[in-house]
Known about the structure:
By secondary structure, the protein is mostly helical. It has helices at 2-20, 22-29, 36-55, 61-78, 84-96, 100-115, 121-144, 148-172, 174-181, 196-217, 222-244, 247-250, 259-274. It is built from 13 helices and no strands.
Amino acid sequence: MKDLFDMISKKSSKLTTVTYSTSFSMGIRVFDRRFHDPIYAIYGFVRFADEIVDSFHGFDKKKLLENFKRDTYAAIEDEISLNPILNNFQWAVNTYKIDHDTIHTFLRSMEMDLYKETYDRKAYEAYILGSAEVVGLMCLRVFCEGDEQKYQELKPSAMRLGAAFQKINFLRDLQQDYQGLGRSYFPGIDITAFDQEAKAKIEQEIEADFMAGLEGIRKLPQGARFGVYLAYIYFYSLFKKIKKSKAERLLRERVRVSDPEKYALLFASFFRTKLQMI
């Protein structure tokens, strides 16, 4: 009956993805079917870790994260876990030979959220590496399906794309992170005095990351290209909305792309990919 448990584990990861993120689940659905389960597995894992540090107020977050880390490493070594999310993640890690150092780096960034409230440049770059860039590398391992040469070729672009996504999330969640969690990720910026000049500098960084990321998307295997491009287009659309917004607006509310806009982007991205316009 192990197959039945593994099926439940896969469904748990998918349910987690669909429940927490309409945009990522939309992107995953347009991947070739062989990529669905492993990408759901990765998202479920990173989502649960993120929830520990962001949402479980009133509980011992440090202890919960330590337990989660211990259970993650045990699941990978034992090739099984009674936690369905970790059972599915270990399957993806062991099947696609996902680098263990990317997992360690990701979990270290989650630990940073337990203690750090403001970030200097070094801590900021370390956090983005762990929380976003290495997650992109986990997914890239899946897409390359053992092709080490392709993985190494696309690795820098995948990291830049992950960095762009994370920096956009920081801008989008500026008010929530600062007022709700007491965090300020951008180095050298006083959130209480956040202005257009500071916003423009961050946007220049993001624009450069996006350009580097797009180069890698063009070289992805066919079964993954459309889904990653859709995520790129969604985040770039959010980025354009943020660029048009005044700095003070970001301190008041969360800029978002509506569901109808997301579906319009889906169809536009589909035709651009089919016509090889990317």
